[in-house]
Amino acid sequence: MLFYIPSWASPVIRINIIDAFFCADSLPSSPTIIINKEVLLAKNATKRCDQKDFSMDRYHGRKVLESFIREYKGKRIIEITPIVVFNDAGEHDLVAWQEAFSKKWQEGKSYNLLAIGIPFVKREDFDKSEIGKRISFDVMTYSAKKQSGRHVSASHFVFPSDLELSKVKVISKEHFPDRKAHHELYGNSLSVVLGLVYELNKLN
User: Fold this and answer.
1) Interhelix angle for 191-200 vs 60-71, to 10°?
2) How many Å apart are CA 169 and CA 165, to the nearest integer?
3) pLDDT at residue 7 tops 50
4) What does pTM read for this prediction?
5) 3 state DSSP class of 141
């Protein structure tokens, strides 16, 4: 599979991670990773980070960030902006998704990282939605491959992994068969972290 490497060279690589809550303050620090303040774009989203157990789906963003910190071994400075697009009830905020892909949050970024997606019953539903009409991809976006589960079936159309766009790279566990321990620890969807970090680790 071909991966995209930016032709430009910036001393800092800026990445949006768009997900559920992160609670990054208690994660281990890294000399090469800067984590900006968590951006709560979803309405009725409350940051609650005073507990010890972060295993709930509410903190999926934290799992993504934790995996990224573990896997990144590169020399370049990475600046991460964690963006929350889920509310306290665990629901997608579609307006927040649109804002996450607006110029305000996309400008100056090198990548978006998405280990989540929005399921639609069929492609036509996506095309008619505000997401389908308004979101465009100007920044290279690494997306987890669609995975059937509680809310997603094989017949669903999932944004953005089912889009066939040059700026959307879809990553699955099949790309990293030797990382079984990682898949078991973080779940198959977080293979997308390996996909992006694999490229970043090669940069000087």
Assistant:
1) 30
2) 8
3) no
4) 0.90
5) strand
- If pLDDT is split at 50, 70 and 90, which confidence band does 17 have? very high
* Amino acid symbol at 131: I
Identify the DSSP state of 59: G
Residue 155 dihedral angles phi and psi, to the nearest 5°: -85, -15
Evaluate whether 141 touches 112 at the Cβ level (below 8 Å): yes
The helix (H) or strand (E) run that includes residue 128 is helix 123-128
pLDDT in tens, 116-142: 999 999 999 999 999 999 999 999 999
Distance CA 11, CA 204 (A): 10
Q: According to the model, what pLDDT value does residue 155 have?
A: 86
Give the closest residue to 63 by CA, choosing from 201, 196, 191: 191
For the chain, domain boundaries: 12-200
Helix (H, G, I), strand (E, B) or coil at 79: strand
How far apart CA 172 and CA 60 sit, in angstroms, is: 17
Residue 170 has pLDDT above 90, yes or no: yes
Q: Measured between alpha carbons, how far is 147 from 189 in angstroms, rounded to an integer?
A: 7
Task: Copy the structure tokens of residue 32.
Answer: 């090469």
